[in-house]
Amino acid sequence: MKLHEQKEAYLMLEDGTWYKGIAVGKIGTTSGEICFNTGMTGYQEIYTDPSYYGQIIVNTTSHIGNYGVKEDEQESAGVKFSGLVCRNFSEMFSRKDGDGSLQAYFEKNNIVGISDVDTRELVRYIRSKGTMNAVISSEILDVEKLKEEVKKVPSMKGLELSSRVSTKESYFLGNPDAKYKVAVLDLGVKTNILKNLTDRDCYLKVFPAKTTYAEMKQWSPNGYFISNGPGDPAVTSYAIDTVKNILSENRPMFGICLGHQILAEANGIPTYKMPNGHRGLNHPVKNLISGLSEVTSQNHGFAVDANAVPKDSNVEITHINLNDNTVEGIRLKDKNAFSVQYHPESSPGPHDSRYLFDQFVSNLN
């Protein structure tokens, strides 16, 4: 399908608001929770991040597809998001070492999208109304039928998704003769998180999401990493139980994004669904321990309840978001465990926060 054919496509929001545009990718219908990412680059990394499973992404940057795709820039084995909304979509790409166009990539991976949407207006609308479900279709062009389709989309709140994107079998990564062994609980882990660990002399065994602590412990790792991933942390009970057991033996632990939320839940601190979430490459975060600020890459729709943290004297807030004061990091005073809400590995994004991997490795000694 060539974009110059200008086949129609529709975006329908769950409140009945709809947008007309041009079909992108595969001709078909897709659905999910609609959310927006404000990053100006890194679209391929976003689309292959397992944390976006079940979500339709609105890219706010004006041009999407202009530098094509590269096989080695994927953050997982394949595309994980549900669909794309953008302003201008380019079939042509300018990067000499690109492996192909984004249009061909979408067709290969069965991704449905829509372009020529006023994304500035759409994002302003979502920000005022809150994140909601949506349907994109280039085959159902009847607005009333699309209104019925969007009613079928499940709410992200109360949805367990990590087991759908996690590895099905354990696997090893890195140098077997490395100084440290780290057990990774894969709730939807990104490739560059694993790379940041192997680059720091860690040999990894990556376990499926529902692996128990007893199973992971048999490998005798020096520490445990709890990964990012999609869905509602409050219903990811199997991971909460695993983290509780790791903490009971005071093993070194580091959590990112969903892993951060799971650590909070394991300590009786609830999480909640945010009106819009944080998704982009320039979120300012303050490290309350060092007093320094860092520019961070973020992707999450749930957050830790800041009001509940002081109720547990063993849990300390270590990082806050400077835009809205939400919790961006915690550590346990009586355990060797800490976590952050954002993505220190970035990919895409700035590398201000990669010191956190060094901090974790230093805890393994």
From TrEMBL:
This is Carbamoyl phosphate synthase small chain. L-glutamine binds at S51, G229, G231, L258, Q261, N299, G301, F302. Composed of two chains; the small (or glutamine) chain promotes the hydrolysis of glutamine to ammonia, which is used by the large (or ammonia) chain to synthesize carbamoyl phosphate. Tetramer of heterodimers (alpha,beta)4. The gene is carA. It holds the Pfam family CPSase_sm_chain. InterPro entries: Anth_synth/Amidotransfase, CarbamoylP_synth_ssu, CarbamoylP_synth_ssu_N, CarbP_synth_ssu_N_sf, Class_I_gatase-like, CPSase_GATase1, GATASE. It catalyses: L-glutamine + H2O = L-glutamate + NH4(+); hydrogencarbonate + L-glutamine + 2 ATP + H2O = carbamoyl phosphate + L-glutamate + 2 ADP + phosphate + 2 H(+). Residues 1-180 are annotated as: CPSase. It comes from Cytophaga hutchinsonii (strain ATCC 33406 / DSM 1761 / CIP 103989 / NBRC 15051 / NCIMB 9469 / D465). Keywords: Amino-acid biosynthesis, Arginine biosynthesis, ATP-binding, Glutamine amidotransferase, Ligase, Nucleotide-binding, Pyrimidine biosynthesis. The keyword ATP-binding applies. Residues 7-137 form the Carbamoyl-phosphate synthase small subunit N-terminal domain. It comes from the Bacteria. GO terms for molecular function: ATP binding; carbamoyl-phosphate synthase (glutamine-hydrolyzing) activity. GO terms for biological process: 'de novo' pyrimidine nucleobase biosynthetic process; 'de novo' UMP biosynthetic process; glutamine metabolic process; L-arginine biosynthetic process. Belongs to the CarA family. Its EC number is 6.3.5.5. Small subunit of the glutamine-dependent carbamoyl phosphate synthetase (CPSase). CPSase catalyzes the formation of carbamoyl phosphate from the ammonia moiety of glutamine, carbonate, and phosphate donated by ATP, constituting the first step of 2 biosynthetic pathways, one leading to arginine and/or urea and the other to pyrimidine nucleotides. The small subunit (glutamine amidotransferase) binds and cleaves glutamine to supply the large subunit with the substrate ammonia. NCBIfam families: CPSaseIIsmall (TIGR01368), PRK12838.1 (NF009475). The lineage of its organism: Bacteria, Pseudomonadati, Bacteroidota, Cytophagia, Cytophagales. Pathway: Amino-acid biosynthesis; L-arginine biosynthesis; carbamoyl phosphate from bicarbonate: step 1/1; Pyrimidine metabolism; UMP biosynthesis via de novo pathway; (S)-dihydroorotate from bicarbonate: step 1/3. The active site is at C257, H343, E345.
